[in-house]
Amino acid sequence: xxxxxxxxxxxxxxxxxxxxxxxxxxxxxxxxxxxxxxxxxxxxxxxxxxxxxxxxxxxxxxxxxxxxxxxxxxxxxxxxxxxxxxxxxxxxxxxxxxxxxxxxxxxxxxxxxxxxxxxxxxxxxxxxxxxxxxxxxxxxxxxxxxxxxxxxxxxxxxxxxxxxxxxxxxxxxxxxxxxxxxxxxxxxxxxxxxxxxxxxx
Length: 201
What we know:
Layout: H1 23-37, H2 42-55, H3 57-75, H4 78-86, H5 93-108, H6 111-129, H7 133-147, H8 152-161, H9 168-195
Helix pairs in contact: 3-6, 4-6, 5-6, 5-7, 5-9, 6-7, 7-9
């Protein structure tokens, strides 16, 4: 409905199975070629593949749940409602929109999940404010990268890999301000790219 779209229209719920362009397709082909080059049997490769799936099953479930949540927010109209609310930030939105990407990754642990959750919101808000939707979608990802160092998954992986068990809270306290300052610097750059010539996009 207006003002999100020029005329009332239904949201097109279309699933495209473009398996050739999926990230995992290239990885799978490379893994199969590497396995055959290392003279692994197909049975051995399937066994290793099964073990890998078992190891990452909870991660896959988490990513699937975050993607599902992103589609729910889109098709329920929540992202449009939030986008219209964020548009009230006015001229400061490029700064806060970048921090929204930072917050998304800090909460979900994934830049992809943050983009699914907030990508449409960023586009809607940018269009309402006359900003570049490409700039704000990029800002969501760029801000999100700065949130990667404080998300729970990354901290747990780091503490487990270094066998620094029980120090997760200490790691978070140490890197939190680094993450926030870097996110603010990226947000400032996005703000300049939104309004200041010759950086303006």
